[in-house]
Structures are given as structure tokens and as C-alpha cells.
Specification:
- It is a single chain.
- A hairpin with a 2-residue loop joins β2 and β3.
- The strands form 2 sheets. A 7-stranded mixed β-sheet has the order 5-4-1-6-8-7-9. A two-stranded antiparallel sheet has the order 2-3.
- The protein has one domain: Spore Coat Polysaccharide Biosynthesis Protein SpsA, Chain A (Alpha-Beta Complex).
- It starts with a strand and ends with a helix.
- With 197 residues, it is of the alpha/beta class.
- The chain is globular and about 45 Å long.
């Protein structure tokens, strides 16, 4: 199975006050950490972004913009990722947010074990809707969902497509910890230092 990883950087980073993907943890940007982990697991890694994509020009990743710029939901990123998969001969896409610096190295392997067209990660009983594996066959379904008068949320789409939920342990740290605030950035720095990440 040929899989492309897509890092979704659609948020406005409003709680951080600046682009959180560019924040440093032990001298490495969060975006570089995410990309490094996904390169280990997939045939290719690209970045999906909304707004001005030029802000990622120097990051060394191809950038695919949202196709549906009229909706403000991460579902637009998953849609763009699936469209990219169809146009480039990938069987599926592995998506992850740009603010999760500690993604597990077994992410793809375990999501593939879900044996469904879609699977998402979970930890501490919380589902991580944007961290998932999506078959390219879901593209017509997501386009139908996006054509509805009321755009579904990403969690609604996860239920609609019957995604498997794969749980990870959150000890000694949550592998899906994400950084949205300066306080969470400081905590990520602490985790990285303690566990030599």
C-alpha cells in the first residue's frame, strides 16, 4: 500500500499568538519533528495549509492548499489530502496536525491494524480526529459531506465514515500532546528534555 503523509497546518495559532509549527523544542521546530516522524513511516510527506501558504516556503516541504476555502474546519485539510492522494497515485493518506511534537513511530502500523477505510488515534480516552489514516476511496464520500448545507465537523465525519479508533498509552507521556499555548510549549520542552526526545 502506497501512503502519503500530510501534515495539516490549518489553525490560526490564536492562542499561541504566532505560528506554533515554527516554535522550537530542544532546538528543533515542531513542524520538523512531525515531518521527521512521518518520513520514517510513509512514502512521502507534504504539508496542507490554509491562508497564506508562503509562510511555509522555507520549510522544505511541498505545500498543498485547501481546495474548499469556504469552510473553516480541519475537514478541509483531510479533503485536500485525499484529493492529493487521488491525483498522485497514493492508496491512502496519513494525516497529523502540525502542533504534535511527540507522534509515535508506530502510528501508521497501528492505524493500519484498524482494518477499515479510516482509523484515528486516541489516548487518555480522547479521540484525536486529525491524526488518522484515510483510504483514497473516501474522497467521494467526503465531497458529498462537504456539499451538505451544514458542513460537518471533523468528528462528525469520523463517525460518518465508521473510522476505527486505536488507543495509545499516555505513559510516560502522551504521544499526541499538542502545543497551542506558551504554557504547553514549556511543558513540551520539559517532556522532551526528560525523555531525551
Amino acid at each position: 500500500m502506497k501512503i502519503c503523509a500530510v501534515i495539516v497546518a490549518g489553525g490560526r495559532s490564536s492562542r499561541m499568538g504566532r505560528e506554533k509549527a515554527f516554535e522550537l523544542i530542544r532546538g528543533q521546530t515542531i513542524l520538523d519533528r512531525v515531518a521527521s516522524c512521518l518520513r520514517y513511516q510513509s512514502a512521502a510527506v507534504v504539508l496542507n495549509a490554509s491562508g497564506d501558504v508562503n509562510r511555509f516556503h522555507d520549510m522544505g516541504l511541498s505545500v498543498i492548499p485547501d481546495i474548499r476555502t469556504d469552510i473553516a474546519t480541519p475537514l478541509a485539510g483531510v479533503h485536500a489530502a485525499l484529493n492529493h492522494a487521488r491525483e498522485n497515485g497514493f492508496d491512502a493518506v496519513l494525516t497529523a496536525p502540525s502542533d504534535a511534537p511527540f507522534l509515535p513511530r508506530d502510528l501508521l502500523k497501528r492505524l493500519l491494524g484498524g482494518q477499515r477505510p479510516a482509523a484515528i488515534a486516541a489516548s487518555c480516552g480522547q479521540q484525536h480526529y486529525l491524526t488518522g489514516l484515510w483510504s483514497h476511496e473516501l474522497l467521494p464520500e467526503i465531497e458529498r459531506a462537504l456539499s451538505e448545507p451544514r458542513t460537518p465537523r471533523l468528528q462528525d465525519w469520523v463517525r460518518l465514515c465508521g473510522a476505527a479508533v486505536v488507543e495509545w498509552p499516555a505513559e510516560p507521556y502522551d504521544p499526541f500532546f499538542n502545543v497551542n499555548t506558551p504554557q504547553e510549549l514549556a511543558e513540551a520542552e520539559r517532556i522532551a528534555a526528560e525523555f531525551s526526545l
